[in-house]
Amino acid sequence: MKSGNIFLIGMMGAGKSTVGELLANNKTSFLDIDNELEKITDMSIIDMFNYYGYDRFRLMESAFFKECSKLNQFIFSTGGGIVECKDNQGILKNNGFCIFLDCSLEELKKRIKKDTNQRPLLQKNYYLTIDKIYNYRYALYKTCSHLTINVNDKTPEQIVLQINKHLNV
After folding, report:
1. Which CATH architecture has domain 5-159?
2. pLDDT by residue (tens digit) across 13-31?
C-alpha cells in the first residue's frame, strides 16, 4: 500500500470489515473501529448504545476515530454512522483515501436480516429504521468518499481486486 490510510465506509452489512481484512492481507495493519471500541470498553456496541445512549456513543466513537486516524498506512473499517459527525467527514476526506462500499437498500436488508438483534439501531421497527438510516447517510457517504464501489453482486475478493486495481497495488 502507498503511504496514507484507507478508510472503508458504508452501511452496516456492506462488508467493510470483511473487505478490510482481505485488503490488508497481513501486509498492512488493519483496524476495525467497532471491534476496537468493544475491546477498549469491554462492552459490545449494543451495550454501549444502551448504557450511554446514541449521542454519547457517537462522541466516544468520534474521539477514538480521531486518535486512530493519526496512525499511518492503516486500513480502517469504520462504523456505519461515522459519517454523521462533521469532524469525521473532514478526517475521511483529508487524512487518507476513503472508499464507499455502496450496497443497495434491498441487498442490505437481505444481508443483515438475521442479525438485527446485534445492531442497536435496528432493534425496533427494522424495515422503517433501515430505510431512514440509509436515506439519511447515503449522501454523506458519497460526499466523503474518493471512490465508490457498488458491492451488490460482488464477492469480497472481487471488491478487493477492484480496490487494488484502483490503487495500482
Report:
1. 3-Layer(aba) Sandwich (3.40)
2. 899 999 999 999 878 899 9
